[in-house]
Amino acid sequence: MKQKLSFKEYIYVASMLFGMFFGAGNLIFPVYMGQVAGRNMWAAVLGFLITGVGLPLLGVAALGISRSNGLFDLSHKVGRPYAFFFTCALYLTIGPFFAIPRCATTSFTVGLEQILPHDDKSWLYLLLFSLLFFAVTLVLSLRPGKILTYVGKVLTPCFLVFLAIMVFVTILHPTTSIGAVEPQGAYAAQPFFTGFLEGYNTMDALASLAFGIVVVQVIQGLGVEKAESVAMTTVRSGILSCLLMGVIYLLVTLMGVWSRGALEAAPNGGTALAQIAQHYLGKAGLLVLAATVTLACLKTAVGLITSCAETFVGMFPKGLSYRNWVFVFTGISFLLANVGLTAIITYAVPVLMFLYPLAITLILLALLGHFFDHDRAVYAWVTGLTLVAAFYDLLRTLPDHLRAVLHVNGLVDTVGKALPFATIGLGWICPAILGLVIGLIFRAVRPKKA
């Protein structure tokens, strides 16, 4: 029985984890942030790295260190009903309802749509592209034992080659200096907190709780079976993959800033990538971009389908088989992808604002649980109060027409004035701290079991 992996195996596992994390959304958001943050990019990128790199690393570490068999086992520390609720909500969000459809739609919008003719048949092009995209995803996801080969050894290196072409051409020929680019919007007033919340859009902290089980299984498949060794190997692999993500985020953000001498700030990161690719590389640049984004999204979709199917088989052992879950999730993702990228992003934001505080507090409780013996009262109070504040964030970030229909504008305004940090999207912090204090008090006064 091995105690640890070889250096080569570490690289493969870290590459696989990076490949599952890093999709087209991870390119879209930092390049747009660079364009609009301008000279405030350093504060913005620091906030972005906390939620885009730091939290995913802590999520992988939480699963490894707590020796949990996936998210359901970890969230079970709050209670069994909550474990079913949170696990289903998280996996459906980073799976067939938002993240997987976004993979296909983003790769089409940012990549192939820039090359294809712009006419009234765009819906048909998207339909055909998403059909092919999910056919490939389905084939790869039906053989989960090959995920290390598909993602770690093939797709990730190809993706990095394509990305390197774009990044280094831009960085070697900057069109302006960082200090010359004026920050825009919220990045002018609060660049750090705006970057912090922008990192939510990557969904990587949520994904880290989902991918942890895949990493553990791959490590065990390579011969490391002792619980302590699996935990440490998981953490080390997470550090390697997150370091690589951090470097790429910084380079892509710089790419966005340095492009502003020749380009106006784009309405979104997808358009920004297309404009940068065409400016520096011409028509060939659009082809490189299409290949980069499609590979990035494909490998992420495979990782998400695999994780979702394995988790639902574990949660509902008398339900569908792994193979059938793969078909169900792939089919739902295909249908929702054809709704369009704008609608997917619009409705994803409120859900992410709801789930992220719950994920952050669960990760921190798992990492620090040995200080209070993973007492359920602490988990329950922190999670319960965070849940209330997170629901407020969901209501606050709903599209305007939905808030009007639900008649919650008055409630949102009232709570926003009373809840500390609510205006910067961090209203859950004080309730979480209050829950921690109450939980620790309950633990302290409760009679000790013999």
TrEMBL record:
Topology term for the membrane: Multi-pass membrane protein
Top-level taxon of origin: Bacteria
Record's GO cellular component terms: plasma membrane
Molecular-function GO term, any one: L-valine transmembrane transporter activity
GO terms classed as biological process: isoleucine transport; L-leucine transport
Family: Belongs to the branched chain amino acid transporter family.
Name of the featured protein: Branched-chain amino acid transport system carrier protein
Organism: Dysosmobacter segnis
Gene behind this protein: brnQ
